[in-house]
Design goal:
4 helices, two-stranded antiparallel sheet, mainly alpha, two-stranded antiparallel ribbon
Length: 263
């Protein structure tokens, strides 16, 4: 076989291989395809689920779940466009009435003054990372801003923050708790006219002052100088609100006990 014949045969072979590959590609693109959730489960027979039992969700259907307390939750990026923060120049226009209104709203989410706020929305088996996605930066969802956490992140949010009226006790109609806590303060005392006000509440678990008094806080409670980061340099905690337990001697017993009135 001459050199030209060998080249001719090689060209014909390449043409046949390319034609076969293109044919297989066209058949694969235009042929019948299985739905994504059916691929790889042809050998598994379908089993009828018992009535009243929610079937397990396939991984491909996680984004389309329609059951659970957050069935209607939408995580589309287009719905999370954030509004601009308040202009610092408008912080001087806050009124005392706005502050009282914000404090009243704040008290509705607590069993008593100083108690951890309840969770005002439905929750499911979400991780602390899900809580941080909104409460870490004060995300606005459906015109409602999630309060920024006033303390460092912990691993078990629901250990302190419980769901408000969970479904397990929604039908309970018994007598509520009649415990009355100490009224929440409205402002801190000043050593003299013009002096920085003292902190009127305990600072334990409230180390992040800007969570309430920053630009993401409620009207009337925002500081006029959010760019200053060392709050306790000017605003001193009050001695009677100190969080550290005091050891006092109990004359009726021969040991020391921790006084609870300082907590």
């Amino acid at each position: 076989m001459s050199e030209s014949q060998r080249i001719r045969s090689l060209q014909v072979l390449c043409a046949v291989v390319i034609a076969g590959a293109l044919t297989g590609l066209i058949i694969g693109l235009t042929g019948n395809r299985l739905p994504p959730h059916e691929v790889g489960v042809l050998a598994a027979p379908r089993v009828e689920e018992p009535k009243g039992v929610i079937p397990s969700t396939r991984y491909t259907e996680f984004s389309r779940r329609t059951h659970g307390p957050n069935a209607g939750f939408s995580s589309r990026l287009s719905s999370l466009v954030q509004p601009p923060l308040p202009d610092p120049r408008d912080l001087l226009d806050q009124t005392h009435e706005q502050k009282l209104d914000s404090l009243a709203r704040r008290s509705k989410r607590r069993a008593y003054n100083g108690a951890p706020p309840v969770i005002p929305h439905a929750i499911d088996q979400r991780t602390p990372a899900a809580c941080l996605s909104c409460h870490g930066s004060g995300l606005v969802i459906d015109r409602i801003r999630a309060p920024v956490m006033s303390h460092e992140p912990y691993a078990s949010c629901t250990q302190c923050h419980v769901e408000n009226r969970p479904a397990a006790i929604a039908s309970y109609s018994g007598e509520g708790n009649r415990f009355a806590g100490i009224p929440a303060p409205t402002s801190g005392e000043r050593a003299w006219t013009g002096a920085p006000p003292s902190i009127p509440h305990a600072t334990h678990m409230r180390e992040n002052c800007l969570s309430c008094h920053g630009l993401t806080g409620w009207p009337g409670m925002r500081t006029t100088h959010p760019w200053r980061l060392s709050c306790t340099q000017c605003h001193a905690p009050q001695a009677e609100l100190e969080q550290a337990p005091r050891f006092v001697h109990a004359p009726d017993v021969s040991r020391f006990r921790i006084a609870a009135d300082g907590l």
